[in-house]
Design brief:
Blueprint: E1 9-13, H1 15-18, H2 23-33, E2 37-40, H3 47-61, E3 67-71, H4 74-80, E4 84-87, H5 94-101, E5 106-112, H6 114-119, E6 127-131, H7 147-158, E7 162-164, H8 173-178, E8 183-186, H9 196-210
Helix pairs in contact: 2-3, 2-9, 3-4
C-alpha cells in the first residue's frame, strides 16, 4: 500500500544547528509540536551513523502520522524501514532510488530552479522540494534563489506535490502557501531554538491558518 504523507510542516534536521540538544530530542519535540515530515540529513556522516540515528528517530515517529525521510542514503532507509528517501540533483537518480525502495515508499527530489522543473522525469517521484526560495547557510553552494514568484512557477510546471525549501521560517508561511506549495521546509526555525516544541507548534498553527 502506498505510503501517504502530509508535507505541511517538513523539518530538515541539521546536526550542527541541533547542537548539544541533539537531533533525537529535537525530533521528539517537533513531532509533539505538529511536524508532519522529518528528514534526517547528515551529509558528513557514514551510512552506519545515519542508520543508528535513524533508528532512534524511527522509534519516535512510529505510531504517529509523522513520516521519516532519509536524505540520500537508501541503504540506511531500508535498514531502519524509513518512510522514504529524499535526493538532490547530484545524488542517485530518483528512478534508481525507486527501484531500490519499491513502489510503496516515498521518493522526494530537490528541484533547484525553473530549468530543472521543466526537464525532470516526474514518474518515480512523489513530491519535490522546490526552491531555494531564499539563500540559506544550511546548504552551501545552493542554486540561485527563486523567490516566491519563481516558487509558484516551479510548482505550476512540475505538477507534483511540493514543499518549499530555502531560508524559510514562520514569517514566510502565508507567502509559501499562497504560491501553491503543499508544505514549508524549515531547518533553523526549529533546530537550535530555545524551545523546539514551541517553535514547531507556532509554525503548525500558522500553517493551519494559511494552508489551502
Amino acid at each position: 500500500m502506498k505510503n501517504t504523507f502530509d508535507l505541511s510542516l517538513y523539518l530538515v534536521l541539521d546536526p550542527g544547528l541541533c547542537g548539544a540538544y541533539g537531533m533525537v530530542e529535537t525530533t521528539r519535540d517537533a513531532v509533539a509540536g505538529g511536524a508532519t515530515m522529518i528528514q534526517l540529513r547528515m551529509k558528513d556522516a557514514s551510512s552506519q551513523e545515519r542508520t543508528e540515528v535513524g533508528r532512534a528517530l524511527k522509534q519516535i515517529t512510529d505510531g504517529t502520522d509523522t513520516k521519516l525521510i532519509i536524505n540520500d542514503d537508501v541503504e540506511a532507509a531500508l535498514a531502519i524501514d524509513a518512510d522514504g528517501v529524499h535526493v538532490g540533483q547530484a545524488d542517485d537518480g530518483p528512478a534508481l532510488v525507486r527501484d531500490m525502495l519499491g513502489p510503496d515508499k516515498i521518493v522526494g527530489l530537490s528541484i533547484d530552479g525553473l530549468e530543472i522543473a521543466r526537464n525532470f522525469d516526474p514518474t518515480p517521484v512523489d513530491y519535490i522540494g522546490a526552491g531555494p526560495v531564499f539563500a540559506t547557510a544550511t546548504k552551501p553552494n545552493h542554486a540561485p534563489p527563486v523567490g516566491f514568484e519563481g516558487l509558484a512557477e516551479m510548482i505550476r510546471i512540475a505538477g507534483l506535490p511540493a514543499v518549499a525549501i530555502g531560508g524559510l521560517n514562520a514569517g514566510h508561511v502565508e507567502a509559501t502557501f499562497a504560491a501553491g506549495a503543499d508544505g514549508i521546509a524549515v531547518v533553523s526555525a526549529i533546530c537550535g531554538q530555545p524551545n523546539p516544541k514551541e517553535a514547531t507548534s507556532t509554525l503548525f498553527q500558522a500553517i493551519q491558518k494559511f494552508k489551502r
